[in-house]
Batch of 2 targets.
Target 1
Amino acid sequence: MKNMTYTPTLLRSKKLYFAILAVAIVAAVPMIVKSDYIIGQVLTLMLIFAIYASSWNLLAYSGQGSLGHAAFLGIGGFASALLVIKIGLPPIAGLVLGGLFSAGIGFLVGLACVRLKAWFLAMVTFGFSVIIVSIMTQFDSIFGGVIGFPTIPIAPQVIPFYYATLGITVVSILVIFHVMKSKWGLAFKAISENELEAKMTGINTGKYRLLAFVISTFFAGLAGGLYAESTLFIQNSIFEAYYSFLPLIMSVVGGLSTIEGPILGSIIIVSINSFLPLTDKYLQPLGPLFPGVSNVGPPLRLLGLGIFLILIVIFLPKGVTSLLQKGYNYLRTDTTKTKKVEKNGKI
Amino acid sequence: MITSSGLAQALIFGVANGCVYILLATGLNLIFGVMKLVNFAHGQLLMVGAFIAYIVTTMAGLNPYLAILVSMGSVALIGIGMEKFAFSKIRGTDKLNEIFISLGLIYVFENVARLFWVNEFSIRIPSPLISLAVPIGDVAIGYDYILAIIIVITILIGLVLLTKKTKIGLAMRATSQKSDAAKLMGINVNRIYLFTFAVGAALAGASGTLYGILYSFNPTIGALPTIKAFAIIILGGLGSIPGAIAGGLLYGIAESITAYASSGFGIAGTWQDAIAFILLIAVLVVRPTGLFGEKGE
């Protein structure tokens, strides 16, 4: 009977070895790579967006796809930065309080969303991210987000901040993993699969949906605080729709409702954003074909990205993790069996 | 200064503004209703429609109001392409893939438009009626706004006739209710999907042309109208055409009055975009399925 109780931990999971290996690699990178740009702008950003995308993914896991997560990224960022600068709290306290503040607002938004389904919820969260910009602009004398202001990081840039971020990311992902695999996570999954049935089995759906909202917005706020610190600057542009769609893109690219999906997605998308602009100079020879455009690089590059996105959805509808899973399964099954299937199956 | 004639002007602007969104929202709603698909790249079709109308008016010298037809036709073809080569490929997979493929389409449309844009600034379709206006008190309302309202009403009547009185409209409604049963009744569901997408895209093309006549636009203009059209649909209730009309009018007027009032009081201009969402959240907290919605998805 003991095995029937649902208490899987990371220790029992096969993913533990992968996780330790991954963290070890990430921790070792600064010893090999000496570029401040790569570590400060690319790798740190990957870590921060891994938290952010995982927080979104957790909410989506409970069947609530937010389209306004940038609001919480921004609230966390502004709250932590303002607490440090105006009140003089130590940055690490500001970071945690920023997350808690974001979770508090998340609780209120979650209350408005509890009865809403799919697209209705998406629209309310998106609307909230638009409204928050109006509030920030209206009371700019307090927030100062129109022009923006510099932030104070928890650790000096680049290497110490990188390790601090790595530590926070590992802890955050572990907590999110634990939540997803706990009784709460089971309730979230039940709600996302069929809310009515979940209710009938005695799950207090409203309570669990709110819980998912609070946990998710806490980590989104935490990521926002870190993001503001990594760029050493914060501005109202953090609330842009782009930042709301980013965790969604990352989660879908990496694989929805998995723990590794958002992390992989963050690595892929941040890499694309950081390294794709380098291709601009190779696209310049095509300039004369489009006389109306002064710099032909960005539109051509983004066009390519769009086509890539469409193709990845068509050919890999379950994200990149499905590809990894397929590869893993292929390695595990013995080749004779695979050949048999190939013979009997198509082609 | 807030005056009654100024308020009347804001009201008419709001209705015209709302009409453009109603057209876009109805197209989106039609696609959603029949195909259960959310096309987040719908606003980009508006942008493409406006651009096509701009090209045929400035280069071929066509009257912009006749260009609506050209724009509708071409955008319908683009819509068919979108459905055939993108959305039909992922039918039956995760719903979030639709958002994702739409994002890819947004990148494609915006950047193709950027590559072929006539210059790097916002453009506006030149209307021959631009200098004509009806005076109301100490303000005036352009003929373009009034004509836009009339055109939208005409198109909506046409759409209602199409869905209620024709055989293909019947097939569309059947597919919308239950696609499996429609298939059993001998309806070629895939063809209905293509047709629906074409009609929805044509509506976006028409609304794009009107948008381009009333406002200036650039390749990235599409994102906000999509979200607004979507908010209108949610406000009115998913799949309901009267809901979309009521939502659109409410939305356009609220937006326009806020813009007018914010110039009179010390309110930031950004509330113009936020007001509609405040309205939306207020409605959804009271009625979780929207004004006219029966049940959620």
Target 2
Amino acid sequence: MSEPIKTDVVIIGAGPVGLFAVFELGLLDIKAHLVDILDKIGGQCAELYPEKPIYDIPGLPSVSAQGLVDNLMEQIKPFNPQFHLNEMVETIEKIGDPAFRVTTNAGTVFECKAVVIAAGGGSFQPKRPPIPGIEAYEAKSVHYAVRRMETFRGQRVLIVGGGDSALDWTLNLAPIASHLTLLHRRQEFRAAPDSVNKMMALVGEGKIDLVLGQVTSLEGADGQVSAAIVKRTDGSIFNIACDAILPFFGLTMKLGPVANWGIALEDDLIPVETASFETSVPGIFAIGDINTYPGKLKLILCGFHEGALMAQKAHRYVYPDKRLTFQYTTSSTSLQKKLGVN
Amino acid sequence: MVKITYTDSQGTSRTVEGDIGATVMETAIKNNIPEIEAECGGACSCATCHVYVDEEWREKVGGPNPMEEDMLDFGYDVRPNSRLSCQIKITQELDGLKVATPDRQA
């Protein structure tokens, strides 16, 4: 375990609502670290629909999702938020009144006064392909990520998918596996053209097999797969014998470890009270798509509002002895100083 | 208003009215049609509103756009008449459209 990072607030989720929370907290002199499981900032906006225009952000008649993220990053720059990407918060322990110790799966430890959960639809995790009975093989022979390439030395490996992950691992594992088959639904690949060319070269040299089709079911016993039953594009059925299957079907959102943090949940959402968006645990807040309350709308603009009110209550935990006076950025010289515009 | 018929994987058909300009996915969700999940809400970012377009309607509906074709890689039992229903906009021409849903979404 590493030395704890001491900060005022840990924000879980670096989507638009988590980002704007940095702004609202920052105006109140509250420093924040953000943790996100993705390798980039922006949450669903960056991962799912970066190029889609959004039309209901107040004051921006049309903005692309990535454009909104970029704007938010510029807006919160004066507050110097610290990002911890590719990390998922695993545990939150209460160590004070309130104070929390937050630990990620990468071993990063924070000690903070308040936690803000802005995790949207949950954490992005590899999608389980819709193959009947695949769960039974997941612990042993079906893998959604490669942790150690050596695991696959000498094995007959079947990689399923047509994106960058599928192609990258095809190229990396080809020299290690005893036999490698890449299975994809169609001739066109989403992966980078360079990877596709390299893969096709390996196929041409007879080093790997490329099969066009879809897995319909799996054969095996005790978690060990022995073959995938594949339907080819022309409808014919055949078996691919294999010891390991690596399906790369993109990402989906799962609630993840939120359920273990001791917070009351309701249908996989976090109920909050609407004066401060605090959860059932004092000092832990939930804003954006992950919370629920009467009248809740899953809109980015609602998440922004929730962040503003959350910050007022968080201030009481971070600065229990300071009285908070409400100020406008248009007129307050002290706020303008914080924003670096005065 | 046009009529759209959804047939589920068990063979049960449900005919509902859809607004011109809405998508086949939105119309399904509005009418509680089973077997269409639409996890991403219509952003063409998942493959959970996958439908099979009835052969007689394939030409009028047309094929998937390139982004949709990419997303269909994540679908289950994708066939030549597969579409993501969030990408089919309802027009007057599609009055009477028939689609079927697969027995599982991605």
